[in-house]
DNA sequence: CCTTTTTCTTAAGGTATCTTATTTTTTGCC
DNA sequence: GGCAAAAAATAAGATACCTTAAGAAAAAGG
């Protein structure tokens, strides 16, 4: 997806913040190793994880980057990671791009829409237990690597309740 | 967004079903007048509205259309409507498209992603009351036109609970 | 290896939201 | 304009999930 001129690789340590709420997003990040996440903090101070980005995933705040408005989200590293930084605005200057790149971007966008729509369906239809089981299927790898409280945040429940659910599942 | 060869206008009556769960989506619909909706039915038989498509909106199941797999959603008309049908697969044959069309598609996709992400954030962070108030702001028009039970389905609560919320809000 | 910090578990009580059922109001239709 | 059908309101009891708090286990760091 990336052409050479706009690439820059960068090592980040666990805990490093790559985008803060209030900033305007300039870069997107493609993850080579490790794992990033994006999250929002609600008015009660609670974090809600929007996306995990392990190897090969791309993460950014499109809305902020494209519309030059302060981001509502944070992006940070939950493991030591290596990423490629992409200047989103330049990259989105469609008229400077060749057709192949546009086709590729369309594919990426399309897949993002499909993924995001699935998440909406999942949140509307599934119970917390369903969402946990689905998380395990979707990211069998991540479940071993990251703390449970991050999983809880992603599926939209408290860590305490996830702990309850896990016990109930184990007793089946 | 549409070029002449792939256009077909069509009148649909309130209640007409344009896509059923289990079918493979062939068409997308651009709404000229009236209003369509997409929804899923969960395992308990309850409907959850994913999207309203009043005038100028586009609605389809990208996942089904692109990956040729049975759709999980329904699309029907909640008002008498006039729509343009678009053959999604042909339209998505990127290599037959000119650059301008690709650029336009990228924009549309981008906006869809932004909208879908906002919905996820909204569902993770906001209470039912917040979501109702936000619906009123986002679709001041629709709130007058459609039954409350459809609004309840969209914001992810029961009609009874929406009724409660409205009373509480009125008593403030 | 030991200490500190973080994460996980457990439990009790609370709240938001659901379910079911009944009644009232609104809408659609001949 | 009146009847049937759909939608909305109301209410009581149930449940999923949250809050708080405390202790146990695991991880991190020097």
From TrEMBL, chains A, B:
Gene3D superfamilies xref list: Jelly Rolls
Pfam families named among the record's database cross-references: cNMP_binding (PF00027)
Record's keyword terms, sorted: Kinase, Transferase
Lineage top rank: taxon: Bacteria
InterPro entries: cNMP-bd_dom, cNMP-bd_dom_sf, RmlC-like_jellyroll
Domain Cyclic nucleotide-binding: from-to ranges: 10-94
Entry's transmembrane regions: none
GO molecular function, one term: kinase activity
Protein name: cAMP-binding domain of CRP or a regulatory subunit of cAMP-dependent protein kinases
């Amino acid at each position: 997806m990336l052409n050479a001129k706009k690439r820059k690789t960068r090592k980040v340590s666990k805990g490093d913040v790559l985008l803060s709420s209030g900033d305007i997003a300039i870069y997107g990040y493609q993850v080579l190793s490790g794992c990033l996440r994006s999250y929002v903090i609600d008015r009660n101070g609670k974090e809600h994880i929007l996306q995990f980005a392990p190897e090969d995933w791309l993460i950014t705040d499109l809305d902020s980057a494209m519309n030059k408005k302060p981001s509502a989200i944070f992006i940070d590293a939950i493991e030591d990671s290596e990423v490629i930084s992409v200047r989103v605005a330049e990259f989105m200057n469609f008229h400077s791009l060749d057709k192949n790149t546009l086709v590729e971007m369309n594919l990426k966008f399309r897949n993002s829409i499909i993924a995001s729509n699935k998440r909406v369906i999942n949140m509307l239809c599934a119970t917390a237990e369903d969402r946990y089981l689905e998380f395990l299927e979707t990211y069998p790898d991540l479940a071993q690597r990251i703390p449970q409280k991050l999983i809880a945040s992603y599926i939209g429940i408290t860590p305490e309740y996830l702990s309850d659910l896990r016990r109930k599942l184990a007793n089946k």
